[in-house]
Amino acid sequence: MTDNAPANPLEILAYIISAQIRDHTIVYVGTGLPMVAGILARFTHAPNITMVYESGGQDPIHGGMPWSVGGPFTWRKSPTIMEMAYSFGQCYNGYVDIAFLGFAQVDMYGNVNTHMIGDNFLLPKARLTGSGGNNDLTSLAENMVLVGLQTPEKFPEKVDFITSVGHLRGGNTRKEAGLLGNGPVAVISQCGVFNFEPVTKRMRVKTLHPGMTFEVAQMCTGFELLKPEGEIPLTPMPSPEIIEILRKKVDPAGVFTSLPSA
Amino acid sequence: MGVFDYSREALENLKIDDTGVLDRLVDFETARKVHLGKERAKKDKRISLKEAVAEFVQDGDVVMDTGFGYVRTCIQSHFEIMRQEKKNLQMIGAPNTNQSYMIITGAVTYSHNSYIGAEMRGTDRNYTRQLKAGKVKILSEWSHGGVAQGLKAAQLGSPGVLSKQMLASDIIKYNPYLKVMQNPIKKEPDPTVFIPALYPDVTFIHAQAADKYGNAYIYGPTVNDVAGAAASKKVVITAEEIVPESDIRYNKKGVIIPFFYADAVVELPYGALPGSMPGYYYWPRQWWEKLMRLAGPSDENMKDFIDEWIFGTKGPIDFVEKLGGARWMIEARRQTKAAEGDNEDIDFSYQEYKVGSDPGIFF
Question: Which domain CATH number covers B214?
Answer without folding.
Answer: 3.40.1080.10
